[in-house]
Specification:
Two copies of one chain form a homodimer.
Chain A (H helix, E strand, L loop, with lengths): L7 E9 L4 E10 L7 E10 L2 H7 L3 E10 L4 E7 L15 E2 L4 E8 L3 H4 L5 E4 L8 E5 L3 E3 L6 H4 L4 H15 L5 E4 L4 H13 L3 E5 L2 H9 L4 E4 L5 H12 L3 E4 L2 E3 L1 H13 L15 E5 L4 E7 L7 E5 L2 H22 L11 E3 L1 H4 L2 H7 L8 E3 L6
Parallel strand pairs in A: 11-12, 11-14, 12-13, 14-16, 15-17, 16-18, 19-20
Antiparallel strand pairs in A: 1-2, 1-6, 2-5, 3-7, 3-9, 3-20, 4-5, 7-8, 8-10
Helix pairs in contact in A: 4-5, 4-9, 7-8
């Protein structure tokens, strides 16, 4: 352990109580000592991703959120929504660390060669519990950032880049040649635009606002359709015909968007059909739901034949399926293109205590596309 | 060609007109001469399957059906439902033959050895257009029935037996060990009960009526749950826990049944979970929709984690995927167990002209589970 490290550090925790409330607060926790193959990372930057909110504010009615405590140790309290407690029984009364990924400096290392090799390096980490000041993680969980890259550059080096790469790998692995993405103006969506341009993969971007169309077009996106436009259905079919996209990744989940996409794909596939088939086109049409911006039911109006699938898609099982070699290959690409293809932009930066201030809290819980928070655990509140 | 064959024969055809009507009628067609590798089958028995109704009465509002013509040549006319014509453009104004499968006697054969070997045999045929008196089909489309088996025994030797076998092959191929079936009191469902008992595969049968529960239990079914019972949800979860079934085949399609099954599977899978996972259980849960008894939208209330899929399942692409060897293996099993595992029962028999009589027509278009019609093309009207 390096002599100038503190004994204690701040860590954000999320607590669901058996009384049906949610409490977010800062805890003083001991700075851990790394085990043989671990490194101690001084966390300097960590994004707030949609996947973090699922752990941070599960089932909470955020309109009831109130802040108490002190400026250094604020506490956010909110009421859980109707019926939410039932699905959370396994975490009741246990304060959970939050934050899937982040980046920082390796300030101490265990005895193994892999750990020692990272000492002093700036690393991206997918270790969980990253909304903290110091985090001991296995050396294998670290991605050494290229020379000159800052912790801010590497804060989002795991979830979004590997998700974008995972979508393309899934597309290719399942025999498709072009894809559709919804909530396409998100940080992930912008990354996917850059990645697909680089790899020459036709991409249909579905957004909800005119300024999002412009944003994506300024990045070079060719096909951007607005789901709130009166001409959405015909625009979508046109883009699907132009790209032959037969797989979609949908961040919204609920509502009729998945159904619209499948029906659009079927229309595009059968545009030139001359023979009657009561089972629709033989082209397999797939929508993967990877998020839940709309937590309502998914409604499928099945006018898209019989060759179709809708299912959940999640990064972790995808990475397990591709194995260690595949994972290493994708991570190497992320490192090589960290500040180009896989760069992220943030609209606001907050400290750990700042995360629990009303204005910031109510902004990031909205999951608004285009809004992106970066947490700086070393910053003063 | 054998000398005692007629020149002309009756054939049922279904016509969608550009005026938005459906017409079912009998045509006098020439008795075909078999090509080198073809045989001519005198069709004696052919079932009316749900999959035949899709070709017979596509999109028709059957409440508008009226019968005209003569007793020997009746004509059923009905109006197409709102918007139905659009999806049928490829078949407008072309009278289509109907009837996926049937059985009969090979009365003539082409010159090839395979065709000649079938001469005089009783065969099951999946040739399409089987609601006819004589049908020339490729020798490879014929299944020679075992000694003593009648055309009635072999009439349903293709669609239901191969669908039941295909469900089990799909289950095994995708790593599941037990399955769920809906509309389970159908002829197919009864076959699946017998097949799963024989193969030792745990099966959860979902039915809608108490007498259907009793019917399946009389066949030896262990798990039968009634979706109209007030205790359906808990009964279903109990059966899913008992069987560990994680794949379902659903004939209804629309409504909330697929969602109920996925949620039940998730409850069963997480019954013993102690650790909180916001993404639900890692067990993949799959529902295949293979029918459309309910043509309304499919509504999925996604409380079943992220490891799930819903999709279409169809016999033809399944058979294409398993290849010629797999197909031959399954057909050999059907022949060997034709009058045991794969036997069918029929509630009514009709001639070709009888199919177009009001009472019969209104009975089979209901697709009522348990009601099953057999067409006897050689019978007098």
């Amino acid at each position: 352990m390096t002599a100038d490290l503190p004994d204690k550090a701040l860590e954000l925790r999320s607590l669901v109580t058996s009384r049906g409330t949610l409490e977010l607060s800062l805890h003083d926790v001991p700075v851990p000592s790394p085990a043989a193959n671990e490194v101690l990372v001084r966390v300097e930057a960590s994004p707030i991703n949609p996947s973090d909110l699922g752990v941070l504010i599960p089932g909470a009615d955020v309109s009831t959120a109130a802040v108490s405590g002190t400026p250094e140790y604020p506490v956010v309290t909110a009421t859980l929504g109707e019926g939410a407690l039932k699905g959370l029984s396994a975490r009741v009364d246990t304060p959970l660390p939050v934050g899937n990924e982040g980046a920082g400096t390796v300030v101490a290392a265990g005895s193994s060669a892999a750990a020692q090799a990272l000492l002093g390096k700036t690393v991206g980490v997918a270790g969980g519990g990253m909304y903290t000041q110091y985090r001991a993680v296995d050396a294998s969980a670290c991605l050494a950032l290229p020379d000159g890259a800052t912790p801010k550059d590497g804060a989002s080096s795991f979830v979004n880049p590997l998700t974008a790469l995972g979508m393309l790998e899934t597309m290719r692995g399942e025999g498709h040649s072009a894809l559709v993405h919804t909530a396409a103006a998100s940080n992930l969506g912008q990354m996917l635009v850059k990645l697909c341009l680089k790899d020459g993969v036709p991409l249909v971007n579905i957004v909800r606002k005119p300024d999002q169309e412009q944003l994506l077009k300024s990045l070079g996106a060719v096909h951007v359709v607005n789901s709130t436009s009166p001409s959405f259905s015909t625009d979508l079919v046109e883009a699907l015909e132009a790209t032959s996209a037969t797989i979609a990744f949908d961040a919204t989940g609920g509502g009729t968007l998945a159904s619209h996409i499948l029906n659009g794909m079927e229309q595009a596939a059968s545009a030139n059909a001359t023979e009657y088939s009561r089972y629709g086109s033989a082209v397999h049409k797939q929508v993967y739901i990877y998020g839940g911006l709309d937590t309502g039911p998914t409604t499928l109006t099945r006018n898209f034949g019989m060759a179709w699938g809708v299912g959940g898609w999640l990064l972790t099982p995808f990475l397990q399926n591709i194995g260690a070699e595949g994972f290493a290959r994708l991570r190497a690409r992320v490192a090589a293109e960290l500040t180009t293809t896989f760069s992220s932009t943030y609209t606001q930066e907050v400290s750990l205590a700042g995360m629990l201030q009303p204005e910031a809290f109510h902004a990031y819980v909205k999951r608004a596309t285009g809004e992106k928070f970066l947490v700086a655990p070393q910053a003063d509140s």
